[in-house]
Records
---
Amino acid sequence: MNIVCLDMEGVLVPEIWIAFSRATGIDELKRTTRDEPDYDKLMKFRLAILKEHGLGLREIQAVIAGIDPFPGAKEFLDALRKKTQVLILSDTFEQFAAPLMEKLGMPTLFCNSLEVSPDGAITGYRMRIANSKLSTVRALQSIGFDTIAAGDSFNDLGMIRASKAGFLFRSTEKIKADNPDLPAFEEFPPFLAAIEAAL
């Protein structure tokens, strides 16, 4: 039985931290997993900047409220979910993702959670599991699923490489150049066709 595992940010919806960077004018927050392979290092960097500027969950959620999925993302997911099971594997946080999942038709999402103080300051974060995307794909395989995986960032490569078929979607030129054997797509219709062919 097949299950498709997709990254969320950069694939189905815009990068939340980039949108927040634009809204606040804090350029350093544009840094994402496309730029920094070490997620723990990236999050500590982000939390330090939030603290420095006195920004918290409320401000980030206000920006997220104005984010819409990429054009065609919901239709892509709807078409794919008619063919097979789909699981969104993301290193985002449940406090960020909920309104975006609603706009995408409530697909199943596995992600992480933030530690938030009563005044709304983000004090830390809890990863669901170490190497969450690759660990989840391996767990799915251990219970009889064949996985097909796709994403755009460094932290997606493990699950993509471990799956029976894997794709890059709207990735960076560097990641594509470093992984020339992985089929790479920029638009949803050919991406959907490639996944369907792999089922």
---
Amino acid sequence: MKQKVKDLLHILVIYSIALLAAIITLKYAPISSILWKTALADFVAMVIVFMFSIKHNNSSVYDPYWSAAPVIIVIYWLFNSTQMEFYYKILWVVVAIWGTRLTWNWILRWDGFEDEDWRYLNIRKRTGKFYWLVSFLGIHLLPTAIVFAGLVPIFYAFNSSAPTPTSWFTVSTVFFTMAAIYLEKTADDTLRRHVKLGYSKKILLQRGVWGLIKYPNYAGEVLFWWGLYFMSVVVDFNNWWTIFGPVSVTFLFAFISIPMMKKRLSNKTYR
């Protein structure tokens, strides 16, 4: 346990360095567009994290980036936007709740630098000496780009000239997004208890939401990004074209994450 605490503190230092690099990029990059300047800062921070992944020979150093970076990006956009009404603050609060919960879930299940995600271990075996190139492109860069795409609708909502939305549909989008977060939380909590009790190698999890939905943790994550899109587009329907954001996240889970999980489960024997 003491070693895990030390490793988590090390992760905090790594991410603090990455954040500092992003702040410097935001301050000095000669780019007028806030959106593209943020994209560059996001890339720079990701590269810093990747360098530490190599240092520790563990791509799971990147794992909390998925949930931590959006919280920082959205608050930066909020304070550089043309909108500061209550609804736009709610948008950031929803992202902050999601990011904090997902990061905390990672903290609870990560066992330190000796623990690397099983997907990365499989990729390492298949790619051999090309592993770190594949890790940079597929494990670090691709998810960073997809998450950024998922946040683009929020950027355009923050910079819309449309009046603040107040309809029942607006409220329903907030509830939809929070419900997605709750679904993912419930699924993650159930799965974590299942693993902690030592059942994961013997019994297929089919309790609670896992008995109602296949891959409810993935379903909750995908629905969350659609919720952000709905919360953003309700501000100004002219921004409907930012749908590429949640579509990208959906494709990631539908064509990469879920097939990998199906293959993993098919290789296990449950009673």
